[in-house]
Specification:
Helix content: 40-55%
Radius of gyration: 26 Å
Number of domains: 1
Strand order of the largest sheet: 1-4-3-2
Structural class: alpha+beta
Number of helices: 8
Order of helices and strands: EHHHHHHHEEEH
Length: 234
């Protein structure tokens, strides 16, 4: 029997950490806001490019079916096999040939698109395009957005909906990693102020968690994450 569990999503207000009021601190804050804005300005473009790649991978094979004369001829013959009174042997032979062509198309698609390593192929392409403005940890998570395309794949092929589209201001996905060895991401408590809990973000950004009046008891949940009592997702 499968183990049942509940996944809870919490919204907590965050603020980019200020490192003081000195001129040096102000310059650092300005640079961190520039980095953040750069990520925000490019993330939706990367997400749309990823969806385009998944769509291309699907359409490539469909176009091979549509542009192969022999495949089209076989489909036409099979469509009218009863009218033309084809024997069962002829029908079986045509179906077998069609099956072999489909297998060939699939192999050609794998060879051309590297479909056996689809995730890695798309990730490499997107990283090449956006590596200077979006951290790799975020791009890794963005690739997992494939589920949004997969769940609509059939409707997209039917023309009943379009490829998922993203706009500026979309949520920025990243993994939270707890424990030693994770230098880039994680939830921590400041040494000089134990009540100040923050999230380490790529490119050295730090986001202070603001619990406010905390009617949902979010601080207690985060405290249990820090103690290892609760696990945490993305």
């Amino acid at each position: 029997m499968a183990t049942e569990f509940t996944c809870i999503t919490r919204k907590i207000e965050v603020h980019l950490h200020r490192h003081g009021d000195s001129e040096e601190a102000n310059l650092r804050n300005q640079e961190e806001y520039r980095i953040w804005n750069e990520i925000n300005d490019n993330l939706y473009k990367a997400a749309n490019r990823i969806m385009s790649h998944y769509f291309l991978n699907d359409e490539y094979e469909s176009r091979m079916y549509a542009t192969n004369p022999r495949y089209q001829e076989i489909e036409k013959i099979l469509k009218h096999c009863k009218r033309d009174k084809l024997s069962q042997e002829e029908i079986d032979n045509l179906k077998q040939e069609k099956k072999e062509l489909e297998k060939l198309f699939t192999e050609q698609k794998k060879e051309f698109l590297g479909i056996s390593q689809e995730h890695n192929t798309i990730l490499k392409t997107i990283r090449k395009e956006f590596k200077d403005v979006i951290p790799g940890e975020i791009l890794d998570c963005l690739i997992l957005e494939k589920s949004k395309y997969t769940e609509k794949r059939i409707d997209i092929k039917k023309g009943e909906c379009s490829v998922p589209n993203y706009r500026k201001g979309m949520p920025i996905p990243f993994r939270i990693k707890i424990g030693p060895g994770h230098k880039t991401l994680g939830i921590f408590r400041r040494d000089n102020n134990p009540n100040n809990i923050y999230v380490k973000f790529p490119k050295g950004l730090e986001w202070d968690l603001n619990f406010g009046r905390d009617r949902s008891n979010n601080r207690e949940i985060v405290e249990r994450i820090l103690s290892g009592q609760y696990d945490v997702g993305n």
